[in-house]
């Protein structure tokens, strides 16, 4: 009796809710720690990045305009979909990282729980980081946090799923949209994550995921004039200074996070808006 | 009908004593400078004093003094004691308010009515407000026992000299930082008077250091390795240069930069109040205001009526001696700024907009520019895109609310905006759509220490004022740097 031949997955990009190949036609090999071939992964180009930014910009106003309750529900729905794919993520992570399934499962569980934690923040941000301000005059004055717009993220090399979740969740929970570059070394869980997004209720374009070379794409993230903020936690320390300088052209808000799970990570990509209105009859 | 003319009502300048020459304020004492430059009264070009031009060694000494004061004194002092120093400073500023006001108007050219009623009281209020924060930092939103950054290098502009000093120094000190502040080249005098206030308040030496000078002095401060935090208010170009300079370092930065604020008037706005708001939005402080309402967006069906009333109102603006209590519009701060305003206004003429100013006689000496509006302005005109920083208003029109928002947001800046309407839901809708850090609805150019101020996009990084502004001078206890 013949053993059944496995149907293998083609790993592509995730842009505007669709799964295109890189427009460049390029791929690179994702390998295990022993150098063994695991799969071909798309090698995204600058043009793919620009297409992804257009998709993110087109989706942003509507996503920010959704109620916080609605965003919270959609993000929680993503956690439900993640839960159903635990085994798939664990298999991919175990192969890429050369760790046991049990160890890989631990990262998957942490990632899902982390996602749920961030999802719950959607309708609490204004209470924590907003205020009414007692100004010395007959004015009603309040400050509310608002999403910045389109935020780029360079996900860390290690913890390919947890790092991705830590990059994406705090950006989109407030109403930003994002373009994320996944771990170059271990890109596969990111594309499986994209399949989760595609089968949840997240509007197309809110989260776009690229795979490719960090050294090639990170500078284009930094200089793109329609990206408002950038998480460069996944960029090597030696390259951060150049990235920051390239980002000055539109005074991009560029942050490196130390891994702490904190709402400050959400607020880093929000703007405070203050409104004054007179009080009188 | 009998009309009454205004008689001059001059504020006496006898309350201020200006020394012929000033040094820097470093480690609690005034020290002589090496080179000097003149600071003048822009209303008549009289030389007021000679000011030390800070060099790299001066910055070195000041940063060292700030570091020692930080390590030895200020960061170790309980918050409630720091707070009491700030309360002292606030009180002395209130006591010497008239002196500050006259000096500010002399050095800056702004009307005494504004320095007396706005700049100086608000500066004192900023110290009073932040004094109360000094022993309540656990409630700033950064968790238990947040820490200051260390030494803050602060560079401030010439448009609100003492007020910008207060915006910078008060939160820095409340949070436990020490500071080296560089006032603007053309307006150093109130900062030097503030140094005397620090002495009267017996503020420990080195907690506040003031080094006067120009752009080179500012660069030396930004580049100094002993500085942990930069706070800058000024042009977007200089702000970007600072951001590049500190990119390879661990320095934190707050940047308050340029703006091209849209002041949107819907057709249900109360016209007379709106006209007052338009005038306040662009002619307050000679238009030397980063958050000025410099682009007026009028709904098409009321544009004619609003413009007619605006012109009648503008004809009543009194331009002249800043020390005259009747003056509405004072002197342009410097010859260089006047040149920039003229150049941009000329571009408005040559690009096809229509210029209008009321008949008004300008003094012979000093730097003056009549209140001016341009109509027929399009989005492509330089006067609709570039910050003029003068009493020049660009008028555009719109038909639908969506068009108003699109035009308002069509700028790399995002500091301020105004909305005029009697309909609450429309105001809230518009404030939601506008990409700006401060939005005035049915008012304009209001400021308060409790109210966060700062911009989106290329108008800068961070906020000043309120709890949000305070956090710019703090880091959480767990933060690595």
Textual characterization of the structure:
The complex is a heterodimer of chains A (281) and B (481). Chain A is α/β, with parallel strands linked by helices and 281 residues long. Chain A has helices at residues 46-65, 68-84, 86-97, 101-119, 125-129, 162-172, 188-198, 214-223, 237-247, 264-267, and strands at residues 27-31, 37-42, 131-132, 139-147, 150-154, 177-181, 207-210, 229-231, 253-255, 270-278. In chain A, the strands form three sheets. In chain A, strands 7-6-5-8-9 form a five-stranded parallel β-sheet, with helices on both faces. In chain A, strands 3-4-10 form a three-stranded antiparallel β-sheet. A two-stranded antiparallel ribbon of chain A has the order 1-2. In chain A, β1 (27-31) and β2 form a beta hairpin. The model of chain A has no long low-confidence stretch (mean pLDDT 97). Chain B is α/β, with parallel strands linked by helices and 481 residues long. Helix content of chain B is 40%, strand content 17%. Chain B is built from 15 helices and 20 strands. Chain B has a seven-stranded mixed β-sheet with strand order 14-15-16-13-12-17-18, with helices on both faces. In chain B, strands 9-8-7-10-11-19 form a six-stranded mixed β-sheet, sandwiched between helices. Classes of the chains: A alpha/beta (281), B alpha/beta (481). Chain A binds chain B through residues 128-129, 131, 133-137, 139, 141, 143, 148, 228, 241, 244-245, 248-251, 253, 258, 260, 264, 271-278, and chain B through 125, 141-142, 236, 239-240, 243-244, 247-248, 255, 257, 412, 427, 431, 436-443, 446, 448, 450-454, 456-458, 460-461, 463, 466-468, 476, 478-480. β10 (270-278) of chain A pairs parallel with β18 of chain B, so a sheet runs across the interface.
């Amino acid at each position: 009796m013949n053993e059944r031949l496995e149907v293998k997955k083609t790993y592509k990009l995730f842009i505007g809710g669709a799964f295109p190949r890189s427009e460049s036609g390029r791929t690179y090999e994702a390998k295990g720690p022993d150098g063994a071939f695991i799969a071909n992964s798309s090698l995204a180009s600058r043009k793919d990045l620009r297409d992804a930014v257009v998709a993110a910009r087109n989706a942003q106003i509507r996503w920010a305009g959704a109620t916080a309750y609605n965003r919270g529900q959609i993000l929680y729905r993503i956690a439900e979909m993640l839960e159903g794919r635990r085994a798939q993520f664990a298999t991919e992570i175990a192969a890429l990282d050369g760790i046991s399934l049990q160890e890989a499962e631990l990262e998957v569980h942490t990632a899902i729980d982390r996602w749920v934690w961030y999802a719950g923040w959607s309708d609490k941000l204004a209470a924590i980081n907003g205020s009414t301000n007692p100004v010395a005059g007959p004015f009603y004055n309040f400050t509310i946090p608002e999403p910045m717009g389109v935020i780029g993220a360079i996900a860390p090399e290690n913890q390919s799923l947890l790092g991705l979740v830590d990059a994406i969740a705090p950006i989109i929970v407030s109403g930003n949209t994002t373009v994320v570059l996944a771990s170059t070394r271990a890109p596969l869980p990111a594309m499986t994550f994209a399949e989760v997004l595609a089968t949840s209720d997240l509007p197309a374009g809110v989260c776009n995921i690229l795979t490719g070379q960090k050294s090639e794409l990170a500078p284009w993230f930094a200089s793109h004039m329609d990206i408002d903020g950038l998480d460069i936690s996944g960029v090597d320390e030696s390259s951060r200074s150049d990235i920051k300088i390239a980002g000055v052209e539109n005074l991009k808000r560029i942050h490196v996070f130390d891994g702490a799970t904190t709402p400050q990570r959400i607020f880093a990509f929000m703007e405070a808006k203050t409104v004054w209105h007179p009080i009188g009859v | 009908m009998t009309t009454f003319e205004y008689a001059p009502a001059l504020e006496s300048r006898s309350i201020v004593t200006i020394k012929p020459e000033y040094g820097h304020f470093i480690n609690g004492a005034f020290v002589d400078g090496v080179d000097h430059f003149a600071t003048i009264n822009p209303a008549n070009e009289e030389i007021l004093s000679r000011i030390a031009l800070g060099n790299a060694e001066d910055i070195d000494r000041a940063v060292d003094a700030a570091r020692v004061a930080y390590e030895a004194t200020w960061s170790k002092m309980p918050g409630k004691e720091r707070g009491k120093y700030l309360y002292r400073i606030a009180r002395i500023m209130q006591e010497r308010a008239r002196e500050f006001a006259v000096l500010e108007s002399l050095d800056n050219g702004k009307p005494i009515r504004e320095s007396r009623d706005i700049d100086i009281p608000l500066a004192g209020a900023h110290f009073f407000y932040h004094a109360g924060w000094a022993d309540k930092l656990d409630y700033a939103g950064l968790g238990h026992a947040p820490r200051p950054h260390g030494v803050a290098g602060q560079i401030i502009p010439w448009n609100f000299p003492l007020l910008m000093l207060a915006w910078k120094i008060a939160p820095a000190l409340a949070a436990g930082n020490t500071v080296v502040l560089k006032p603007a080249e053309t307006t150093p005098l109130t900062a030097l008077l503030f140094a005397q206030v620090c002495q009267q308040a017996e503020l420990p030496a080195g907690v506040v250091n003031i080094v006067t000078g120009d752009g080179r002095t500012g660069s030396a401060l930004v580049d100094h390795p002993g500085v942990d935090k930069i706070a800058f208010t000024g042009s977007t170009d200089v702000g970007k240069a600072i951001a590049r300079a500190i990119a390879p370092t661990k320095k934190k930065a707050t940047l308050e930069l340029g703006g091209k604020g849209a002041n949107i008037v819907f057709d249900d706005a109360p016209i007379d109040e709106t006209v007052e708001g338009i005038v306040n939005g662009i002619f307050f402080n000679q238009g030397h205001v980063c958050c000025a309402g410099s682009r007026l967006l009028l709904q098409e069906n009321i544009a004619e009526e609003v413009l007619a009333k605006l012109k009648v109102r503008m004809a009543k603006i009194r331009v002249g001696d800043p020390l005259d209590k009747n003056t509405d519009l004072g002197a342009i701060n410097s010859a260089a700024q006047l040149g920039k305003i003229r150049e941009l206004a000329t571009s408005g003429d040559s690009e096809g907009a229509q210029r209008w100013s009321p008949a008004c006689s300008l003094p012979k000496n000093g730097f003056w520019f009549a209140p001016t509006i341009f109509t027929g302005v399009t989005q492509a005109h330089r006067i609709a895109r570039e910050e003029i920083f003068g009493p020049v208003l660009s008028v555009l029109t719109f038909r639908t609310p969506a068009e108003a928002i699109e035009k308002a947001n069509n700028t790399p800046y995002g500091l301020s905006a105004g909305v005029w309407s009697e309909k609450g839901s429309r105001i809230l809708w518009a404030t939601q759509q506008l990409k700006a850090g401060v939005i005035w609805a049915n008012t304009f150019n209001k400021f308060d220490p409790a109210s966060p101020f700062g911009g989106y996009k290329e108008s800068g990084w961070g906020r000043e004022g309120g709890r949000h502004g305070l956090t710019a001078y703090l880091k959480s206890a767990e933060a690595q740097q």
